Amino acid sequence: MILGDTGFLACRECKYSILPLSIESHFRRTPHSVSPEIRGEILSEAKKYPSLVRDISGIKETEIPSSLPFFFPDLALYSDGLACQDCLYITRSTRGISKHYRESHDWENPRGKGRISKTLKTDVPWKSDIPCQQFFRSTPGKSYFRVNPERPFSGRETRPRRASLTEDNKIEEEAENHSESSRPSLRDF
To answer: Where do the domains of the chain lie?
Structure first.
């Protein structure tokens, strides 16, 4: 599945983005175990979309959003995000947000070191229960971004309609029309 105009592909089963160069190895492993023929067809289909981010250097050049007014149904949706109130940082672990506050905002935990007590609630400077998603589990695109869990991505949010199509858009439009055949499509995975 192509995630809007982000340039990223998503595996619907794993709920994370994958790069075209890893299609072969990704779909060979469990839980997919896709045949070599189908993997080849998926890879051929991906080649029809020149605007896809192809490798890690492309991820580094892509600006990961800090917030979106929708969520991607083909990515894992988390409701337990922890968001910094001083900047746009989001994580899902108390250890991660504490480290961020110490290193980026010179925060000192008034309670000291140790595990947070379940009975004793301490005021913390971050917000909890933030809905968030991430494109990749690792690599430079692993940062979380805030989403609106009430509004699924419909395909119209990130790419405005234009009077004239660019060459990339024409190729993508042709590929979308072609993908209605019986062969596997990127929209199927």
So the answer is: 9-64+162-188, 78-134
Q: What pTM was estimated for this model as a whole?
A: 0.76
Tokens representing 116 are 């947070």
User: Tens of pLDDT along 17-55?
Assistant: 999 888 888 998 888 888 899 988 988 988 898 889 988
Q: Which of 169, 172, 167, 168 is nearest to 185 (CA)?
A: 172
Strand order in the sheet with 78-83: 90-91, 78-83, 127-134, 144-146
Tokens representing 49 are 């979309």
In angstroms, the CA 144 to CA 114 distance is: 26
Whole-angstrom Cα distance, residue 44 to residue 42?
5
